[in-house]
Amino acid sequence: MEATKEIKLVNQKELKNIFFEIKWPTVIQTASIYVFGVIGVIGLLTGHWKFLTFLWALLIFIVCGFSMNIGSHRLLGHRSFKTNRVLKLILIFGHTLSGQWSIINWVRSHRAHHKYTDTAKDPTNIKKGFWFSHIYWMFWYSPAVEKAILSIDVSDLKADKDLMFQYDYFLLIHFFSVAIFPVIVPVFLWNEALWIACLANFTRLLANLTQLSVFNSVMHSHGPKPYDEKTSAVDNIFAIIFTFGEGFHNFHHTFPSDYKCAEFGDLKHFNLSACIIDWWYRRGWVTDRNEATKSMIAQTKIKSGDGTHWFESENILSNPQWGHKDEQKIEEFFKDFEF
Ligand SMILES: [Zn+2]
Ligand SMILES: [Zn+2]
């Protein structure tokens, strides 16, 4: 009898702890995006949206996607190239539209993910399961993870007055760019009904959120590991297309400072984000692109890859059966490179 009472007390205490470990505002915000986003999809499929509203939602989704990839991730998160201030400000605005945290907090968490990948300090640790990495990770307060995130150096970002402006006035900017701007444009410019404009906004927020969730879940669970077989990060064709070229995640975890986030930065490999950076580079708007050398990549594949070469369309590596244990093929392969 006594033992049962004790067990009940423990369970109640655990429940109380779980309650306080949940980030309720994030749960409510995310649940709203899912519920109203899906209602918005139903509205779209049943013909309630004006065509211009659909184009507007699609445009914001695309702008946010590229701003996150090119701006928050490659430019500011990894410092993999440099750009002028105007372009940087556009990318910051695009990030703000996506409904994510401030860039400083976003980068802090992303750098922690790179530093502590697959450990208890990794904010989106895939070892806790696919859905934890996909979405649940945002809902839990974990002292170990919070401590790890706060230990990450973001002094380079704090020295940037544009980023500090976004950080200091974040709630105000966030409210305007997530809840007001995307809604008033369709209402005032082409007389969309207010409730449809709101639902369309929730739907595109859901699309943006899903795009980012794919980074943490799909890109750490389903696909080959040509560059480092020890990490959970993988290359994934669906993720590459859905995220405009970010899905070469095994490569990215192996060479985080490469501006292409991939071995291949061309259209043939769906790396739209790298193509845009290259186009800006040719116009003189981008400089100092960091890149891993071909020989560095080749050696890494042989040393630590899983032997798959699934996405290569040139040279002998196009044979997916070829593995790094095949000495003769390795020799042939290295003939193409100078050391
Ligand atoms: Zn990752
Ligand atoms: Zn990264």
UniProtKB/TrEMBL annotation:
<dbReference type="GO" id="GO:0005789">
    <property type="term" value="C:endoplasmic reticulum membrane"/>
</dbReference>
<feature type="transmembrane region" description="Helical">
    <location>
        <begin position="26"/>
        <end position="45"/>
    </location>
</feature>
<dbReference type="InterPro" id="IPR005804">
    <property type="entry name" value="FA_desaturase_dom"/>
</dbReference>
<keyword id="KW-0472">Membrane</keyword>
<keyword id="KW-0408">Iron</keyword>
<keyword id="KW-1133">Transmembrane helix</keyword>
<protein>
    <recommendedName>
        <fullName>Fatty acid desaturase domain-containing protein</fullName>
    </recommendedName>
</protein>
<feature type="domain" description="Fatty acid desaturase">
    <location>
        <begin position="56"/>
        <end position="257"/>
    </location>
</feature>
<dbReference type="GO" id="GO:0005506">
    <property type="term" value="F:iron ion binding"/>
</dbReference>
<keyword id="KW-0443">Lipid metabolism</keyword>
<feature type="transmembrane region" description="Helical">
    <location>
        <begin position="51"/>
        <end position="71"/>
    </location>
</feature>
<dbReference type="InterPro" id="IPR015876">
    <property type="entry name" value="Acyl-CoA_DS"/>
</dbReference>
<keyword id="KW-0276">Fatty acid metabolism</keyword>
<dbReference type="Pfam" id="PF00487">
    <property type="entry name" value="FA_desaturase"/>
</dbReference>
<keyword id="KW-0275">Fatty acid biosynthesis</keyword>
<comment type="similarity">
    <text>Belongs to the fatty acid desaturase type 1 family.</text>
</comment>
<keyword id="KW-0560">Oxidoreductase</keyword>
<keyword id="KW-0812">Transmembrane</keyword>
<dbReference type="GO" id="GO:0006636">
    <property type="term" value="P:unsaturated fatty acid biosynthetic process"/>
</dbReference>
<dbReference type="GO" id="GO:0004768">
    <property type="term" value="F:stearoyl-CoA 9-desaturase activity"/>
</dbReference>
<keyword id="KW-0479">Metal-binding</keyword>
<dbReference type="InterPro" id="IPR001522">
    <property type="entry name" value="FADS-1_CS"/>
</dbReference>
<feature type="transmembrane region" description="Helical">
    <location>
        <begin position="169"/>
        <end position="188"/>
    </location>
</feature>
<keyword id="KW-0444">Lipid biosynthesis</keyword>
